[in-house]
Amino acid sequence: MAKRKTTSSPAESALQPATAEKTGNSSVADSSAPSPPSIYSRFSDFDVHLFRAGKHQKLYEKFGSHVVELNGVIGTYFAVWAPSARYVAVIGNFNGWDKGSAPMAVRWDSSGIWETFIPHIGRGEPYKYFIVHESGRELEKGDPYAHWWELPPKTASVVWDTYHEWQDGEWMANRSAKNALNAPFSVYEMHMSSWRRDPSNPDRELTYGEIADALVPYLQDMGFTHVEFMPVMQYPYAPSWGYQITGYYAPSSRFGTPQEFMQLIERLHQAGIGVLLDWVPSHFPGDAHGLYEFDGSHLYENPDLRKGYHPDWKSYIFNYGRPEVRSFLISNAMFWLDRCHADGLRVDAVASMLYLDYSRNEGEWEPNAFGGRENLDVISLFKEINEAIYAQFPDTQVIAEESTSFPGVSRPVYMGGLGFGMKWMMGWMNDTLRYFERDPAFRKFHQDNLTFSTVYAFTENFMLPLSHDEVVYGKESLINKMPGDEWQRFANLRLLFSYMFTHSGTKLLFMGGEFGQTSEWKYDASLDWHLLEFAPHKGVAACVKALNNLYKSEPALYERTFTADGFEWIDTSDRENSIVTYARNGNNPSDTLLIVLNMTPIPRADYRIGVPSAGTYREIFNSDAHEFHGSGVMNTAPVESDEARWHGRSQSIRLNIPPLGAVVLKMVS
């Protein structure tokens, strides 16, 4: 297989000349201290211009630490943005963390960029930046652009690179077909730390390589097309699940090196599985070594706490109007697609970014220039990021977790939208779970919860999520949300998944749901894989596997998933029996599928439904099959339509409808 290299070799030598300016620090060196030696810079004047204009898309090639050869000497070039500093130095093991022995030089152009070259240090060297603010305040900070960090609770950055000889050329050349909006898109959402742990030592997290050994064959067997990793960027606080990031340009050191992370993605690609990364541009923590008050000023966060502090997460919000911060975020999105071959980004907490009054009471927020509640800087930033991504990586997807009715989230920028490829359908998730949590005896009074989604289903390119947020904080696991005795709970769960996979939209299922994990998700413990020894759990897993295979093999379930002509209600009027019937249509009329859902535990014999045309219909999926631990109420023989008019159609058929079951039929002649 052809190899693909996306980075230069570790010893990079294409550097641009720059002049250095003398600097001093009252607590380390007085005004007579020698200035740093003349250095070379990775920044051209154009780079600086783009950075300061908020338009630079590849700052990871410029900032951070880079092992290079300079005048025949191997060493490390460092660059950091600290415009409010009067002194910056590199400290680390190499100089005994001495604050005065490795000062940096600030560029002459008032960009606030500090640089230096330190000979004879390289890959694996821990370091921080010692920064003295104009006021004299002293800070020690990790590198915002570092590619690797020490293992928490240590907090130093580590000199590293992203050099990797990629061996996923076949996937990269053909992934546009896998990531297309008219292709099957079934996502397995997982938290890397808690998906599976060392069986001999449950406290030990698996490495990237060990995760690959177990995950790749599992996803292949279960039939998912993509995996979505909850944030893998460097985060110090495990209970944050990865959503409090301090190292935006580094895969978490908990599981291994950046190259080992790349190999995990590579192995997934070689197995035909796409990789989505959870991306968090909405907030960052106030850790002393992180982005907060980086150079002693509000550098990355908005200085106005009405815009710069998140009351829900007790964290800080980026200053989306500051050009250099915009360059940081645009470049960060590009980094994961470019250097790590990610196939897309799921953007976290978009609603919290779009609205100035998000989680704020009256008087705690300031309207925009037009008197509205929308954050205009965020709107323009999302448009820029999405346009840049789809211009450079048109075969990827950017997916918004957006919980409001903000218009055009997944519409192109040229049509007035934000430019995302898809949007999570939070309304569908909330309404559907609320419906399924009800006792079947009362579902007939709440059928609108089930059918309302199609009123707005085609206003966006929706992904149907059953995500991690629904199985924590006392919300119960999916299986324990289901009412009834044990058999009914598992039948309900299989029915829920059947509805999800046959409804319009792409799919996302959080780990553990696919086999009926009974306990709520715990971020610091493995899933209960032993449950697969028991028939009900094994049946749910078999059902999800069959649904994935059905989804991928039937064009009617994905070809027109974002357009109204791909979905058609046949009957929603049988509230008394809580049975709904609908059709899914593909590009070819012969691909049309009929779906019948029975939301009660009462089987229905000889139940009549109207069909689109005369012919013979065959059952191709039944969630009540014995192999799924069902009761086995099936339609084993093909069913001929007759001329009895039903549901407004000239032809109809009679079926056996299983209890708490879903039936999918296809015309065969």
List the topology elements.
Layout: E1 4-5, E2 16-17, E3 20-21, E4 40-41, H1 45-53, E5 64-70, E6 73-81, E7 85-92, E8 105-107, E9 113-119, E10 126-133, E11 138-141, E12 148-149, E13 157-158, E14 165-166, H2 169-178, E15 186-190, H3 208-222, E16 226-229, E17 233-234, E18 247-251, H4 258-270, E19 274-279, H5 305-308, E20 309-310, E21 315-316, H6 323-338, E22 344-347, H7 350-354, H8 376-392, E23 397-400, E24 422-424, H9 426-436, H10 447-451, H11 453-456, E25 462-466, H12 478-481, H13 486-502, E26 506-510, H14 535-553, E27 567-571, E28 579-584, E29 593-598, E30 604-611, E31 616-622, E32 639-640, E33 651-657, E34 662-667
Parallel strand pairs: 15-16, 15-26, 16-19, 19-22, 22-23, 23-24, 24-25, 25-26
Antiparallel strand pairs: 1-14, 2-4, 3-8, 5-6, 6-9, 7-10, 8-9, 10-11, 10-13, 12-13, 17-18, 20-21, 27-28, 28-29, 29-34, 30-33, 31-32, 31-34
Structure overview:
The chain is an alpha+beta fold. It has three domains: 4-158, Immunoglobulin-like (Sandwich), CATH 2.60.40.10; 192-415, Alpha-Beta Barrel (TIM Barrel), CATH 3.20.20; 564-667, Immunoglobulin-like, CATH 2.60.40. Helices cover 22% and strands 23% of the residues. It contains 14 helices and 34 strands. It has an eight-stranded parallel β-barrel with strand order 15-16-19-22-23-24-25-26, surrounded by four helices. The chain has a six-stranded antiparallel β-sheet with strand order 27-28-29-34-31-32. Strands 3-8-9-6-5 form a five-stranded antiparallel β-sheet, with no helix packed on it. A hairpin with a 4-residue loop joins strand 10 and strand 11. Helix 1 crosses helix 6 (323-338), helix 3 runs parallel beside helix 4 (258-270) and helix 13 (486-502) runs parallel beside helix 14 (535-553). The protein is elongated. The two termini are 43 Å apart. Mean pLDDT is 94; it is low at 1-38.
